[in-house]
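Example 9 (inverse folding). The structure is encoded as follows.
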């Protein structure tokens, strides 16, 4: 146990900071998960600056390392830019497989 008033105060302050840091970190992680599950590009583009700000604040307060913040922001930005591009090839691939199965079924019925 602490023997000095200042060390007791430091313990209380550290506990308060730890709880605050955990809250902000968890809130940011939840927001990241919500953004990654987003399928609408416009909504994601609106949420990205808010999330970037949250990540920058964590890095500024040394809750996370600045390089980790940069990596997270980079990955999220890439993700948001690819949201619209992912839907089109996926739809084309599904249409192509449906067409192939249809032609195979027609070929079987003719034989």
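The amino acid assigned to each position is listed next.
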């Amino acid at each position: 146990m602490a023997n000095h008033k200042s060390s007791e105060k430091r313990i209380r302050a550290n506990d308060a900071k730890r709880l605050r840091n955990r809250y902000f970190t968890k809130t940011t992680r939840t927001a990241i998960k919500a953004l990654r599950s987003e399928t609408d590009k416009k909504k994601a583009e609106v949420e990205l600056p808010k999330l970037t700000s949250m990540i920058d604040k964590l890095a500024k307060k040394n809750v996370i390392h600045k390089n980790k913040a940069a990596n997270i922001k980079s990955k999220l930005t890439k993700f948001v830019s690819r949201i619209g591009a992912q839907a089109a090839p996926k739809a084309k691939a599904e249409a192509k497989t449906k067409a192939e199965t249809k032609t195979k079924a027609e070929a079987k019925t003719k034989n």
